[in-house]
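To: structure subgroup
Subject: Chain for Friday's discussion

All,

I'm putting the inputs and outputs inline so they're searchable in the archive.
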Amino acid sequence: MADRWATFGIDLHLEPTGPGLRRGLTDALREAVRSGRLAPGTRLPSSRSLAGDLGIARNTVADAYADLVAEGWLTARQGSGTRVADRAVPRPPARPLPPGRTPGRLPYDLVPGTPDLASFPRAEWLKATRRALATAPHDAFGYGDPRGRPELRTALAEYLARVRGVRADPERLVVCSGFAHGLRLLCDVLHARGARTLAVDSYGLDIHWDLAARAGLRTAPLPFDALGTRAQDPGDVGAVLLNPAHQFPLGGALRPERRAAVVDWARRTGGLILEDDYDGEFRYDRQAVGALQNLDPDRVVYLGTASKSLAPGLRLGWMVLPPSLLPDVVAHGGGRSVGVLEQLALAEFLTSGAYDRHVRSARLRYRRRRDALVGAVADRAPDVRVTGIAAGLHAVLQLPPGTEQSVVQAATWQGLAVHGLSRFRHPAADVAPADALVVGYATPADHAWASTLEALCKALP
């Protein structure tokens, strides 16, 4: 029988089957409720509306509803219509978890990579969204420029130049749905141009290495020493992926002489530097380290994101591209993956000053958390050294040799999710193993910070 859908009132998909319209409709409705497709409380179309859509008499629908009300599947009240009754629906028994698996999320969370989501500026973002929606031109809701909305590209160019020292022309700025999306586009372009290897830090994120691999690029870890990443001579690679302002996860900044050397390499060989400036706004002890892109905008691709400053769920990121790279990136997809309303809202958020106010407030809050973390560890676990704390939203806790796995397990027993440093080491990295925890102190909400810190201290040796 052909699919039938309500075309006015409330939409409802039904396929009445069996002998007689009334019985067929009753059986179809009963099965929709029993299977859970119609959840408790769901309002059904009026008998007139459903009868018109199905091409049957209104009395047939009314009688079917009455039968199901009598059976307890539906409820009918004057003024509120006919609804699915709130009754228990049998569910299949839950499958037991495999040994060693913990059901649900742990109550405390220090996994790095996420800001305090409870502090998202809902009221200010709502104001920005309303203003942006009220003033948006009609053509904003069309397909538009593949680089992204000009309002956002202009606002970002001004902000990045003022705050991060980026030489940003709105014409060379492409909006993307977060850093990972931007990196995927760049890897696709690099592979299409003949590159086969991307140099990366010895410590980083496997999701970035996997993105490169899916684009056909091998990742080669850069040498690492006591002063950080040695990026000055990456070798025979097409591009280098770096966090020059705040390396993740170790937390250091790329030294000035090494910044200059890797730019010289790019100029000499025609290679590219992909600069991941994921948390550049959060510097606590001195002026923020400026963007590497400022040294050579023709050889450095600058990538930024609102995932740490606002929330990853917004899926908002941006790239400032060399002129030679722009046409290929746009051809591979550009910024069409980001909703126009989010772009307009962020543009308004930036130009109104609300973004600066939010970042300053968050910076103060995160610095207080960092100080509390350092103080608690010094008091409760004096053998643990805290490093990588000059910037960002995480710290590295250096553990006694051979204790990383036992400390991670002890944290789990305390109900605490936290990652060891070994999780972030590239499989091919030629570095001596080091025992440490990478603690994302921005992740917990304010009300949970004290108890989360207590759980951490109990797990430390």
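Points worth raising on Friday:
Residues 35 and 91 are 9 Å apart (CA to CA).
The longest strand covers residues 300-305.

D.
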